[in-house]
Write a structure and sequence with these properties.
The complex is a heterotrimer. Chain A is mainly α. Chain A is built from 21 helices and 2 strands. Chain A has a domain of 212 residues. In chain A, strands 1-2 form a two-stranded antiparallel ribbon. In chain B, strand 1 and strand 2 form a beta hairpin. A two-stranded antiparallel ribbon of chain B has the order 1-2. Classes of the chains: A mainly alpha, B mainly alpha, C mainly alpha. Chains in contact: A-B, A-C, B-C.
Chain lengths: 492, 140, 112
């Protein structure tokens, strides 16, 4: 028992509520929210360190022993993601301070960001599949509000679509849960894993597994991503960055958890299916990114490519591939957040979204331009930046698993990513500037500091991959040997 | 259009007390029988909504000057507060405790901290319910 | 009894699906509400509709009812209550700003 585990969930919730009462004093809201996020980041780092020495820790709510009660389980994989998510949110808040606008700040922007991060952290940490559903809903309800924040016409239309898609996805989640409960009579994830292993994964359980694949596929944007480009391009930039960094990643986390812990037995069906879906996702994402003429389309389709690429790691399923997937997951959270913050700033500076209509940004804002160049290199996977380690390991894993087609698709997608992002760079940053140096809008200091912090994180994940290796190795060990997780939860 | 709602107004004056009493009863009966914070909150909330429907916003607002968003927030604060109280006593998160207390006049009663949690739930439900109705009706 | 409930679930799902596929916002929202009721019944049926007493230590001799599905359903009801409420407000706002509750007419509304 360690009550520290629940803090990444409960601190943001309580702060969020307190912020509701402080509606009118914006300055206080900003200070409190940033302090909270820094605290959560520090706590998750401490937890990560504790897990290294003490092994997986769990917290049985209200003292009900598993498999009867709800519990939180903290292993390295979950904690790495909690840490990355909290750090990214902290930095996105810095950006939001200077750009989100007084109206949104008064309309409970900070409380809902807090609820969002609470839901995200809860989804990572929970060890009970129904609790995962609840945390998903906390996160989604906050995201519904954030999509619609501002209340412009397009936003309302897109958020209506977004909410409806997610309501149907949650409904499917419940259906899958009902069938799962009907067959294995338990909801504790470790206990499910044990029961499934005892019974051998019979066809009915495989069907349930595929139902879960569909649900999490919808949430992660795996194959069923048709809703993503629309709804990710309407909210304010800081919200976009949070969404593309966090929401799809929670779906990916759930997929990885489900298919390494609970349903790992029938790999020739489920993992093949994941592989096919990942391949098609990447191809479709590439087509979208190539066809896009405005920054939002290119950005959102890059999110989709990233999702497909991480899941190649899961489809391959070897130890190397999983290591790559964990690295790439962290990289993708940081890099996509930075990409969307930069895109938001480009639109703010030029009042344009079509890339052809903005040009010469780098003349007015040299540092800004070069930070964009760093993201471009990181997303393509150029060493020594963050994308490199993940890409090379996933590639190596795919080789080991002899899935050459996925390997080819994955690496071909890197070229498309490079091309699509380079198009923005050439069209929007290079060339003659249309705005003179004197008339340029200034980039707020908060925004600049968030760019620089995220860029430093990108370089750190790339160069400091060695120092992260201890944690990642432990995380992958749990993923490859689910018995470690099961023993930690059910033994004692 | 002005509708003649004398009957509604007269009936509501009496009925609203019955509804509110039922809500409170349901809330407390959740202790050992069907009922509880969610259901009690729903009934209490619908009673308040009935008041808003019968009399206009301003009249009700004069007598009940609450911001219902804040009522909901206060509810969540109570519920989470009772949950994290256990952290202070180094018990697992969400732990609840109970005991028998001798209260003057009422005699020995069974009190638990779950009631605080349930009160939070009830306040949250009332707050959200009324907020939803008001946010739809306010911008006529 | 379980098979009867499952048939009922089937009917509710088909009604909900039909409503969701229509063009009117309110119908779609009612459709999602009906779908959620269907899945609540499904969870109840999956837990088994035993006729037993409450599963309390020391009180249950013989058959007792599985209480977990009911707890799950209560949670799911609360969540679907919140989502439906939010959807209703959102639909109302959309109707106010766009002047239509028809999804086909909403399509292609230009920026501002």
């Amino acid at each position: 028992m360690n009550n520290l585990i629940v803090l990444p969930l409960i601190i943001p919730i309580i702060t969020g509520i307190i912020l509701v009462f402080l509606r009118s004093s914006i300055m206080l809201q900003r200070v409190i929210s940033i302090i909270t996020m820094i605290t959560v980041s520090v706590i998750s780092f401490l937890l990560l360190d504790i897990v290294q020495t003490e092994g997986i820790i769990r917290l049985d709510f209200s003292g009900w022993l598993p498999p009867f009660g709800i519990l939180f389980v903290a292993d390295s994989f979950a904690l790495l993601l909690v840490l990355t998510a909290s750090v990214v949110t902290t930095i996105c808040l810095l950006y939001a301070f200077s750009t989100i606008g007084k109206d949104n700040e008064k309309m409970f922007f900070y409380p809902f960001v807090m609820f969002l991060i609470a839901g995200v952290n809860g989804s990572f940490l929970t060890g009970d599949i129904f609790n995962l559903f609840v945390c998903f809903e906390v996160m989604l309800l906050a995201s519904y509000v954030l999509v619609a924040m501002g209340g412009k016409k397009v936003q309302l239309r897109e958020s209506l679509k977004y909410v409806l898609i997610n309501v149907v996805a949650s409904w499917l989640f419940l259906v899958a849960l009902a069938f799962l409960y009907g067959t294995v009579k338990t909801l504790n994830m470790a206990h499910i894993a044990e029961r499934v292993a005892e019974a051998g994964q019979e066809p009915l359980l495989t069907t349930v597994a595929i139902l879960f694949l569909l649900v999490f596929g919808l949430k992660a944007g795996l194959l069923l991503f048709f809703w993503l480009p629309g709804s990710y391009s309407v909210p304010p930039a800081a919200v976009q960055a949070l969404f593309s960094a966090l929401l799809t990643k929670v779906g990916i986390y759930a997929l990885i958890r489900t298919f390494t812990l609970m349903f790992p037995l029938n790999q020739e069906i489920t993992h093949t299916l994941i592989g096919i879906m990942a391949g098609i996702t990447i191809i479709a994402g590439c087509l979208g990114a190539l066809s896009g003429r405005d920054v939002y389309t290119i950005g959102t389709y890059n999110v989709i490519i990233g999702v497909g690429f991480i899941l190649i790691g899961l489809a391959a399923g070897t130890e190397t591939a999983m290591t790559g997937a964990v690295y790439y997951l962290m990289h993708d959270m940081v890099a996509k957040a930075l990409l969307f913050l930069i895109i938001g700033m480009m639109v703010y500076l030029t009042d344009e979204t079509i890339i052809k209509n903005m040009s010469g940004l780098i003349r007015n804002y040299p540092l800004f331009g070069w930070i964009y160049f760093i993201v471009l290199l990181a997303l393509t996977g150029i060493p020594p930046l963050s994308g490199f380690v993940g890409k090379i390991l996933i590639g190596q894993g795919a080789l080991e698993a002899e899935s050459y087609i996925l390997l080819a698709i994955g690496f071909a997608s890197s070229i498309i990513v490079l091309y699509s992002l380079l198009r923005i760079f050439l069209a929007s940053f290079f060339g003659e500037t249309t705005i003179s140096f004197e008339d340029r809008k200034r980039i707020p200091k908060g925004a600049y500091s968030s760019f620089i912090l995220l860029a430093i994180s990108i370089v750190f994940i790339g160069v400091g991959a060695e120092s992260l290796a201890v944690y990642v190795k432990d995380a992958v060990n749990t993923l490859i040997n689910p018995s470690v997780y099961i023993d930690a939860v059910l033994k004692e | 259009m002005k509708i003649n709602d004398v009957i509604l107004r007269t009936v509501v004056k009496g009925v609203v007390f019955i509804i509110l009493t039922l809500g409170v009863y349901l809330f407390f009966s959740g202790h050992n029988a069907p009922g509880g914070g969610f259901i009690g909150g729903l009934v209490l909330g619908s009673g308040i909504v009935l008041l808003y429907i019968t009399y206009d916003l301003e009249t009700v607002h004069k007598k009940m000057p609450f911001d219902f968003k804040k009522v909901a927030a206060l509810g969540v604060l109570l519920a989470t507060g009772s949950a994290i109280g256990s952290l202070y006593f180094n018990a697992p998160f969400l732990s609840q405790t109970d005991g028998y207390f001798n209260i003057p006049i009422l005699g020995e009663k069974h009190l638990t901290t779950v009631t605080i949690f349930e009160a939070g739930v009830a306040l949250t439900v009332i707050g959200t319910l009324v907020t939803i109705i008001l946010s739809i009706s306010e911008d006529e | 009894m379980e098979s009867l409930i499952v048939v009922l679930v089937g009917i509710l799902v088909s009604v909900g699906t039909y409503l969701i596929l229509s063009r009117h916002m309110i119908r779609v929202i009612v459709g999602t509400a009906i779908l959620s009721h269907a899945v609540h019944l499904l969870i109840l049926a999956m837990g088994g509709l035993k006729k037993g007493i409450v599963p309390l230590l020391g009180q249950s001799e013989g058959e007792f009812t599985d209480a977990l599905p009911q707890a799950l359903i209560l949670t799911a009801i609360v969540i679907s209550f919140a989502t439906t409420a939010f959807l209703l407000v959102l639909a109302y706002r959309t109707y106010k700003t766009n002047g239509t509750a028809d999804f086909r007419e909403l399509r292609g509304v230009s920026d501002e």
